[in-house]
């Protein structure tokens, strides 16, 4: 069953000194899920430690403010940055003036096929990564987490941009659940062709095999994060004639050369269209 709500309806509760948590997705909403998805607000001077278990991984994205991620080395992060922290990898996020972030944890991750396939600590500025462009219109997406970028098939996460009036045809996934979190703009989500509005702060969870699609409003760009768990699955289209294909460009979202060239590894990604 599809679940849809806005974060404004979820109470922020204390979760340690200087930390407030909004629980957006977990076993309270979906009893059999292995995903935790929360919105965290950190006061100035707070340090948040990350210690995923040996069978879990953590991903987070800054929504506002600035922070410093200390792991093997130090990364300064802004609202354009996200990070994947692999299993059993200890790190700490410190903010001097305060920050807000989306926090996700995938539990019970299957062990890799070999030690050489371990997930990698990955910190990305999504605005400087290579962009996929739809073959049908001007929709764009940027890979944040997948096997090519981070060395994990436990999840697939992307930043997706739908210009005004664009959208996909109906489809469903086999082998994975999916959900979106709206970063900005307005539009509609459809479940079994029944529309409902989405806007900044909306979260929509689609169970496996639930037909769905997304569209941007005629007068508003829609930008959202899309999540698939696990990251390997099959997409089935209601109308095969309306399949969306995607082309990897050699430019970032602003039309510049990517800061870090991942063209060759991303060119090897298969699995077809998503949102």
Structure report:
By secondary structure, the protein is mainly β. The chain has helices spanning 147-150, 263-267; strands at residues 3-6, 13-14, 19-25, 35-42, 47-50, 57-65, 67-70, 74-77, 81-85, 91-94, 99-106, 122-125, 132-134, 140-145, 156-162, 171-174, 177-191, 194-199, 202-206, 212-216, 222-229, 234-237, 246-248. Strands 1, 13, 14, 15, 17, 18, 19, 20, 21 and 23 form a 10-stranded antiparallel sheet that branches. The protein has a 7-stranded antiparallel sheet with strand order 2-3-4-11-6-9-12, with no helix packed on it. It has a 4-stranded antiparallel sheet with strand order 5-10-7-8, with no helix packed on it. The radius of gyration is 18 Å and the shape is globular. The mean pLDDT is 93.
Number of domains: 2
- Fold-level CATH name of the largest domain: Jelly Rolls
Quick one: CATH superfamily of the largest domain?
A: Jelly Rolls
Tally the helices: what do you get?
2
Count of DSSP E strands? 23
Structural class: mainly beta
| Percent in helix | under 10%
- Name given to the CATH architecture of the largest domain: Sandwich
CATH top level label of the largest domain:
Mainly Beta
Order of helices and strands: EEEEEEEEEEEEEEHEEEEEEEEEH
Shape: globular
* Distance between the ends: 18 Å
Largest sheet: 10 strands, antiparallel
Q: Tell me what portion of residues adopts beta-strand conformation.
A: over 45%
Let me know the average pLDDT.
Answer: 93
Note poorly predicted spans: none
Rg for CA atoms: 18 Å
By oligomeric state, this entry counts as: single chain
């Amino acid at each position: 069953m599809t679940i849809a709500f806005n974060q404004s309806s979820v109470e922020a509760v204390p979760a340690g000194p200087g930390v407030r948590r909004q629980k957006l997705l977990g076993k309270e909403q979906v009893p059999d899920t292995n995903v935790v998805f929360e919105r965290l607000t950190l006061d100035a001077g707070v340090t948040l430690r990350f210690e995923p278990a040996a069978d879990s991984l953590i991903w987070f994205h800054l929504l506002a403010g600035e922070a410093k991620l200390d792991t093997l080395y130090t990364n300064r992060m802004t609202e354009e940055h996200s990070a994947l922290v692999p299993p059993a990898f200890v790190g700490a996020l410190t903010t001097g003036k305060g920050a807000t972030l989306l926090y996700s944890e995938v539990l019970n991750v299957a062990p890799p096929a070999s030690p050489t396939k371990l997930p990698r600590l990955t910190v990305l500025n999504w605005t400087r990564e290579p962009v996929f462009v739809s073959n049908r219109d001007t929709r764009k997406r940027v890979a944040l987490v997948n096997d090519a970028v981070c060395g994990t098939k436990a999840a697939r996460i992307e930043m997706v941009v739908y210009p005004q009036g664009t959208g996909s045809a109906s489809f469903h996934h086999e082998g994975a659940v999916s959900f979106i979190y709206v970063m900005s703009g307005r539009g509609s989500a459809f479940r079994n062709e029944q529309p409902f509005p989405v806007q900044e702060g909306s979260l929509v969870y689609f169970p496996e095999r639930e037909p769905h699609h997304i569209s941007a409003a005629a007068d508003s760009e829609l930008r959202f994060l899309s999540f698939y768990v696990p990251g390997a699955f099959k997409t089935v289209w209601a109308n095969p004639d309306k399949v969306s294909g995607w082309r990897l460009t050699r430019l970032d979202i602003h039309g510049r050369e990517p800061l870090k060239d991942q063209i060759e590894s991303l060119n090897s990604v298969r699995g077809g269209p998503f949102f």
